[in-house]
Amino acid sequence: MSPVTVFVNEGAGVSVTGVLDATTAVHVTRAVGDFFTQGDTHGLDVLTLDLSTVTMCDHSAVEVVRHAQATCAKQAVALRVIPSEAVRQVMCPRD
């Protein structure tokens, strides 16, 4: 069983709970792609990538966000990321 849960909320975005690392990031990037290919996204302005309940992550979080940005750009949709503290620490490390 994967230590991550990915939920696609049709018409709104993708929510991720649990551990986001190199082994689980593929599930998130697949879900972002599936969001646009399997759901009705006509008229969508913003995709929300909710990472607020990610409990642990590594630098894979950066790649997940970059992939989501690229996917959204192809669809002419803005990306809104809601980070957890763990994600925030990886995305904006303090020296």
Write a short abstract of this structure.
38% of the residues lie in helices and 34% in strands.
Name its key features.
alpha/beta, Transcription Regulator spoIIAA, 34% strand
Task: Write the CATH fold name.
Answer: Transcription Regulator spoIIAA
Structural class: alpha/beta
Question: Percent helix among the residues?
Answer: 25-40%
Number of DSSP helical runs = 3
Task: Output mean pLDDT.
Answer: 90
What is the class in the CATH system? Alpha Beta
Q: Secondary-structure element sequence?
A: EEHEHEH
Strand arrangement, major sheet: 1-2-3-4
Per the principal axes of the C-alpha atoms, what is the gross shape?
globular
First-to-last CA distance: 35 Å
Uncertain segments: none
Major sheet, described briefly? 4 strands, mixed
Percentage beta strand: 25-35%
What Rg, in angstroms, do the CA atoms define?
A: 13 Å
What would you give as the CATH superfamily?
A: STAS domain
Based on the structure, what is the oligomeric state of the protein chains?
Answer: single chain
CATH architecture annotation name: 2-Layer Sandwich
Number of strands: 4
- Counted up, domains total 1
Textual characterization of the structure:
There is one protein chain. It is built from three helices and four strands; from the N terminus they run E-E-H-E-H-E-H. Strand 1 and strand 2 form a beta hairpin. The protein has a single domain, classed as STAS domain (Transcription Regulator spoIIAA, 2-Layer Sandwich). The protein has a four-stranded mixed β-sheet with strand order 1-2-3-4. It has 95 residues and is an alpha/beta fold. The chain has helices at 25-38, 60-74, 85-91; strands spanning 4-9, 13-20, 46-57, 78-83. It is globular. The model has no long low-confidence stretch (mean pLDDT 90). Helix 1 (25-38) runs parallel beside helix 2 (60-74).
